[in-house]
Specification:
Blueprint lengths: L27 H10 L3 E3 L5 E3 L12 E4 L14 E3 L1 H15 L5 E7 L7 E7 L2 H10 L9 H4 L5 E6 L6 H4 L6 E5 L4 E5 L5 H14 L6 E9 L6 E5 L5 H5 L5 E4 L2 E5 L2 E4 L3 E5 L9 H6 L6 E3 L2 E2 L6 E2 L10 E5 L11 E2 L4 E5 L15 H9 L3
Parallel strand pairs: 2-16, 3-4, 3-8, 6-7, 7-9, 11-21
Antiparallel strand pairs: 1-2, 5-6, 8-9, 10-11, 10-12, 10-13, 13-14, 14-20, 15-19, 16-19, 17-18
């Protein structure tokens, strides 16, 4: 990937000082032990780790900011993105460093993107052990000898997630005590005041959305699978429209369930895992996904669990309608081991049309598909 950002202006990364070597790139078993010891979660009857995200059970879109530098000013649609000044980001960065100095952080060296030519190396620092396990599942896991802590090479981007840190709107230029600040020039994302782990993975999507188009690659919010005849299919749709469910077809190979790129090489997954909705999950309708809720390693967010029997109740929305499960993609039996496939033969848009513009099923011409896609369907 062409990295045409000015790394020379990057602030010194001192978060490593709060992440001792023992807490770098741990195994799932180690994260389980630490998460339970630290009171972050509990182990359910059949093995998954059950956690709660507290106040935020989804992403905080109104609390996400992009640092406005002259180098990128013309590349951002500011009508749809909130700006933060470099000075405000510097203050936020320094305050988060001071907060981190009093806490032990967990660190992961991972990748965003399975394409051999189009990916980024990401180092993620987290305050919670279960957050580090989550992001280990959701991003691509390089071999141990390619991880930055072992090679001594700096990452392309750094993400820091400190749920216990509370932002100050007057001081940091944000809206509330929750903040997600993306600095494309310093190559850093700072997340504070939210325990919702999805903010980390979506930050990688934001970075790739910014970088990939200049390399002739289309970033997409979609799921992808492929049949025996290399008839790959893309499923576009908003959250809850069925991307994950439809892509986990037992008769087709799963490439990924949420974020992909379309490059000259074909389609490729941005991630190394899945982040499926759990509420009212059915063993009959979604057997492959349901099976992940009975596996060691799966992280279940805001799923109700009986405190005595440790049995799960996936139908109970008392904690959140947006209950989620995070697991590595190989937990789906027919998942791809490369995260890559051919150019698509079929493009399916899960429109969830509430206005009667489209019939329940519609075959579209390319021109109709482009029009409806750009119109928000």
């Amino acid at each position: 990937m062409t990295m045409n950002l000015k790394a020379a202006n990057a602030a010194p990364l001192a978060f490593e000082d709060a992440a001792p070597p023992a807490y770098r790139n741990l195994t799932a078993a180690a994260y389980y032990q630490l998460a339970v010891e630290r009171g972050e979660g509990a182990v359910a009857a059949e093995g998954p780790l059950v956690v709660r995200t507290g106040e935020h059970t989804g992403r905080s879109a109104q609390d996400k900011f992009v640092v406005r530098h002259p180098e990128i000013d013309q590349k951002i649609w500011w009508d749809a993105n909130k700006a933060m000044t470099p000075e405000q980001f510097d203050t936020l960065h320094q305050d988060m460093l001071e907060y981190a100095a009093a806490h032990e952080l967990f660190a992961q060296d991972l990748k965003g993107g399975a394409d051999k030519d189009h990916h980024i190396k990401v180092r993620v620092f987290t305050e919670f052990a279960w957050h580090s396990l989550f992001i280990q599942h959701l991003l691509v896991r390089p071999p141990a000898d390619e991880r930055g802590f072992n090679t001594g090479k700096a990452p392309d981007f750094t993400i820091v997630a400190l749920p216990g840190f509370e932002a100050d709107p007057a001081r940091h230029g944000c809206r509330s005590r929750t903040v997600i600040a993306v600095d494309f020039v310093r190559r850093m994302v700072l997340i504070g005041g939210t325990s919702y782990a999805g903010e980390m993975k979506k930050s990688v999507f934001t970075i790739l959305n910014f970088l990939l188009p200049e390399d002739g690659v289309m970033p997409m919010h979609c799921s992808v699978n492929v049949g025996d005849n290399e008839d790959s299919a893309i499923f576009f749709g908003l959250s809850g429209t069925g991307k994950t469910t439809l892509s986990a077809d037992p008769n087709r190979v799963l490439i990924g369930d949420d974020e992909h790129g379309w490059s000259p090489n074909g389609l490729f997954n941005f991630e190394g895992g899945c982040y499926a909705k759990m509420i009212r999950l059915s063993a009959d309708a979604e057997p492959e996904i349901f099976a992940t809720t009975r596996r060691f390693g799966t992280v279940l967010e805001n799923v109700v669990m009986d405190p005595v029997t440790r049995e799960l109740d996936l139908d109970d929305a008392a904690l959140a309608e947006n209950s989620r499960g995070a697991y590595p993609i190989h937990y789906i039996p027919n998942a791809s081991d490369t995260g890559r496939t051919t150019h698509p033969k079929n493009i399916i848009m899960l429109s969830a049309d509430a206005f009667g513009v489209l019939p329940p099923i519609a075959r579209l011409t390319p021109e109709q598909a482009m029009y409806l896609f750009l119109s928000g369907y």
